[in-house]
Amino acid sequence: MAGVSTAVVSYVINDGPRATSPDARRRVLDAIETLSYHPSAAARGLRLQQTHTIGFISYDYYPQDAFFAPYNAGVLTGLTTALLAHRHYILPYPIGIGDDLRGLHELLRSGRMDGVVVRLSQEPPITDSLLAMIAAAGVPGVCIERAGAPRFGFSSVTYDDEGAAFGATTYLISQGHRRVAHIQGDIRQVAARDRLVGYRRALIEAELPSDDDLVQGGSWLPADAAAGMHRLLDLAEPPTAIFTANDHLALSIIEVLRSEGRRIPEDMAIIGFDDVPLSGVTVPPLTTVRIPFADLGQKAADLVLRLTQGNHDEPVAETVRLELVHRGTS
Asked: What domains, with CATH codes, occur in the chain?
């Protein structure tokens, strides 16, 4: 209908790689509109051996969090935004640590994904079986949050939980607090363990005693944090400051302190971790460690796109910077 070759139609639809004359471009676009033509993604995928689809595998003890937790939502925002700019799309695949991997194995072998971004909440060797499966399928991959074992050759985008926890606790100590408590997360996850290590290291370097009674919690459930806060308040010498392993735990203990008539930060200073959207609007707004979730996703997208385009250079290990955001609770 346009009186041009199929190659020219392709150049118009894809904005290249070769230029077309304004007249040819107009005739192709007119024909597309008249015929209500839409390229077949399936046919193009077969011809080019590309699907323009990137998998997002969340490998965690809480796989259901992939759909609503602020962490994954922020990462997916950065990941999706970067991929859509290159006409690539996301296929989420949450899977629990210890779950049967056969379904994922079939997906990896199906050719439906050009590459994967894998969120790891654990370190080797726990993650080895998953990464070995991805590598054996020949699907390019990038790890975020935690790096995989070097032998698999995956690039990674990570951050320093321990260092940020050390900095947050050190800041509380610098404000004159000598009884600093910690509400910890689920210590099956490396993030919770590293944040506990950073907290304890800050006490040691400040030559403050490490009192086991000052460490409470042990899960990501707000109810456990609230129970831990009550135990801390019942101590003969309660803390005057608390570093929590994430913001939701911090928001939970704020409610406990408010119900007990305690002033924040006058009676109890609090620092969280993550910087979820609620942190900036609570009363008072929460001082917290900010993880740049969208930047994490953006960097992962850039790396996986390079891999899908055949740029198989040496694996890259990128680190995003965490920032202590000063607000009203400390």
From this structure: 6-39 (no CATH), 53-159+294-322 (3.40.50.2300), 161-290 (3.40.50.2300)
